[in-house]
Design goal:
This protein has helices spanning 2-16, 32-44, 70-79, 93-103, 128-139, 144-151, 155-158, 174-188, 192-195, 202-209, 220-223, 225-228, 249-256, 262-276, and strands at 25-26, 49-51, 82-86, 164-167, 210-214, 233-235. The chain is α/β, with parallel strands linked by helices.
Length: 285
């Protein structure tokens, strides 16, 4: 009931925005029948995508390539809605609460053995703001796991119309990840049975099915967009988080993309998102 109310609130926002806002709903993946039903209900209301955890196994559920999720992936693929994976979304409740406690600088009073895995990302001897900055920096790359697993699986062979977004993750590290996946596939996956799992290469899957986004980066937009894929990059402002661009977003993107071609600028700033989320937009928008 709570999840349905939340999703209805998002659907109301979209309807009342006059085509300006497109929130992404949440899915009850612990109940696949409910998940598919909720997707259909919200798609009928115009919702263009949904956000889900990249580590459902932490909740005692199967991993995302399990046949259990086939109805959900099929609903995504056939409806054209987007599956969004936000950084640091796959956490147990005690991990999240532990991270909050550390931010309040209470780690020293936490009983031994109760400090969550996230505690190791920063030294507890540092101040709470510095700890947050350290964990946030590493968090931007936490979606390495979901991208690597998807590109090394057969999900995109089974659901060839599926589209995936890595949200709030940046793009500077993506060329290295793709090179590493290609290299390690050839170096380590030598068993014919395992090699036959996929029909294509990791980078091919990424280019046809996955999207990443940037906001504060200055070097990567010029140096990495071509390596990532001009049609695979989106922009974000991340309002109202601390690492957001407001005000000055327009000026920032104009500056960092000034060295790119008009075609690249339009793809990154407009066309990619409009096509992916099926947002009506004219050439003058």
């Amino acid at each position: 009931m709570v999840l349905r109310l939340f999703n209805d609130y998002y659907a109301d926002i979209q309807e009342q925005s006059g085509g300006r806002l497109f929130p992404q709903g949440l899915l009850p993946i612990w109940d696949m029948k409910f998940t598919v039903s909720e997707m259909g209900r919200l798609i009928d209301r115009g919702m263009r995508g949904f956000t889900l955890s990249d580590r459902p196994e932490l909740l005692g559920l199967p991993e995302l390539n399990d046949p259990y999720y086939a109805p959900m992936w099929d609903a995504f693929a056939e409806s054209g809605t987007v599956a969004n994976f936000h950084i640091a979304a796959g956490r147990k409740r005690d991990e999240f609460e532990g991270a909050v406690a550390l931010s309040a600088h209470t780690a020293r009073s936490t009983p031994k053995g109760k400090i969550p895995e996230t505690a190791s990302l920063s030294w507890t001897s540092l101040g709470p703001m510095r700890q947050l900055a350290i964990r946030s920096t590493q968090g931007f790359m936490s979606n390495v796991r979901i991208i690597a697993n998807l590109c090394m699986s057969d999900i995109f062979d089974r659901f060839p119309k599926l589209k995936i977004v890595s949200a709030e993750s940046g793009i500077g590290w993506v060329p290295f990840l793709l090179e590493a996946l290609e290299y390690e596939l050839d170096e380590l996956v030598v068993d014919p049975g395992e090699r036959s799992l996929q029909q294509r290469r990791p980078t091919e899957y990424f280019r046809d099915h996955m999207y990443v986004m940037f906001w504060f980066e200055r070097h990567a937009p010029v140096s990495s967009i071509e390596a990532v894929g001009v049609k695979n990059v989106l922009v974000e402002t991340d309002v109202p988080h601390p690492t957001c661009f407001y005000p000055g977003a327009r000026e920032h993107f104009e500056e960092v993309l000034s060295g790119c071609s008009p075609y690249t600028r339009r793809r990154v700033l407009h066309d990619n998102a409009a096509e992916l989320y099926r947002i009506p937009a004219t050439s003058g928008d």
